[in-house]
Amino acid sequence: MDEFCLLKNPIMTPEPSKNPNSLPDFDPGLENDTVWNLLDEASLAEVSPGFVSDTLRRIRLEAPAPTPWWQKLLSPGPLLASAATAAAAVAIMVSLPENPTPIAPQVEVPPVAPVGDWENLEDTLARELLSGAAEDPSLLSDEEIVALLY
């Protein structure tokens, strides 16, 4: 039964046992305030059924029209930003030297001395191939190893 009463009357009223003056934000001077007295005497205004739709329609009609994209680009803010960017680009281009110096320094390469041991080159190659075959015998076949030895 109490649940039905709560649904029927959704406005909650303070219980009679509680004192409304015990609230921490209660101002006792409000009882004699002329504005609140006038508000208590005022009559309630009746709202027409189409009040919300009329209000929203009026807001839509009074709202400023959206500006096209080209007008946004030609407004002072973007024009000022574009001009500042162009001025900065021109200042950078003017401050750069006309003939830039190469960044990497030139390194002198010493000339390669000619190898004078051409006759020992074949023996050195055979020795390296044999040491590689000793570590991994699958690198050379038996015939190749015999050819290197003799």
Description of the structure:
- It is built from 7 helices and no strands.
- By secondary structure, it is mainly α.
Write the layout of secondary structure elements.
Layout: H1 2-8, H2 34-41, H3 51-62, H4 69-73, H5 76-95, H6 118-135, H7 142-149
| Total helical segments | 7
Distance between the termini: 118 Å
Give helix % range: 40-55%
* Whole-angstrom Rg: 49 Å
Key features?
single chain, 150 residues, mainly alpha, 52% helix, elongated
Gist of the model:
This protein has 150 residues and is mostly helical.
